[in-house]
Amino acid sequence: MPIPQLGLSLSITDNAGSSMYTGNGEREKMAEFDSALRQHTISITISDEKINEVELEVQKGILNKVKIPTYKMMVTDDKTEEKTYYEVTRDSLLFNKLKNEEIGGFSFLGLNILKKKMYNIPVLTFEPLTSKIEKFEVSKYRTKKQDYLSYSLLRNKESATLVAGKLPPNFFNTIETNHFFYIVDHNEGQKFMGDISYREKFVQITPKVEINLIKRSDHIKEYQLDKRGRINKIIYL
Questions:
Q1: Cβ–Cβ < 8 Å for 77, 42
Q2: Measured in Å, how far apart are the chain's first and last C-alpha atoms?
Q3: Minimal CA–CA distance to 148: which of 189, 177, 186?
């Protein structure tokens, strides 16, 4: 048998004629206390909007630099409602499976004329599985050091890492994932890290951090790069 709801309430009041009266302004103090307990949320949205490209130093022997697309990323919170924008990479390259081939040109007297050497490299992507947007709560999966900041996105047996800053040489050997989102703010990640720190201090409590990942319409399988590391062609699934 369900318990009847009597509609009773008990609260402090500023009405001096009430038995619950405890002095002027007590209701306002309770409102402030309630506000302090409210958990605020920092939201990081990784969009599907391609805006630029970034040159990464990879030093993998054959290729020293690679240029890959960057996408718009927005950071905001539900208290200040300020919005800041960054660039972020969404594709991870499998350099251990890099292959080269020669394309174009023509043969003349047994010589290959004007052929270009290209490099094909498989691409790993981390996309929402079902809906257009997938949300990850990452507050408990943060690593913050002096030079870098990272968040782990966990989903079943899969994981990805969002990173910003100057990464130590052994960083990728200590992370159990091949999926990376790298934030580009042209200040070695310090702008993004300062942005997050500012929002955390402003809300005065440890906030909840959510990463919203928007699904791209095309699934990339492979990049074809020229000898300078620039994308010549994108191969889709």
A1: yes
A2: 57
A3: 189
- Distance CA(211)–CA(81), nearest Å, equals 16
Instruction: Mark out the alpha helices in the chain (DSSP H runs).
Output: 26-37, 171-174, 190-203
Q: Give residue-wise pLDDT tens across range 82-139.
A: 999 999 999 998 888 888 776 655 565 566 666 778 889 899 999 999 889 999 999 9
Q: What is the pLDDT of residues 12-48, one digit of tens each?
A: 444 455 444 445 554 444 444 445 556 789 999 999 9
Q: How far apart are CA 35 and CA 108, in angstroms?
A: 79
How many Å is the maximal CA-CA distance in the chain? 108
181-188 contact pairs (CB < 8 A, 24+)? 181/46, 181/88, 181/89, 181/90, 181/126, 182/56, 182/88, 182/89, 183/73, 183/86, 183/87, 183/88, 184/54, 184/70, 184/86, 184/87, 184/88, 184/89, 185/86, 185/87, 188/147
Q: Mean pLDDT, to the nearest integer, of 186-209? A: 87
Computed on alpha carbons and rounded to an integer, the radius of gyration of the chain in Å comes to 26
Q: Which of residues 97 and 3 earns the better pLDDT score?
A: 97
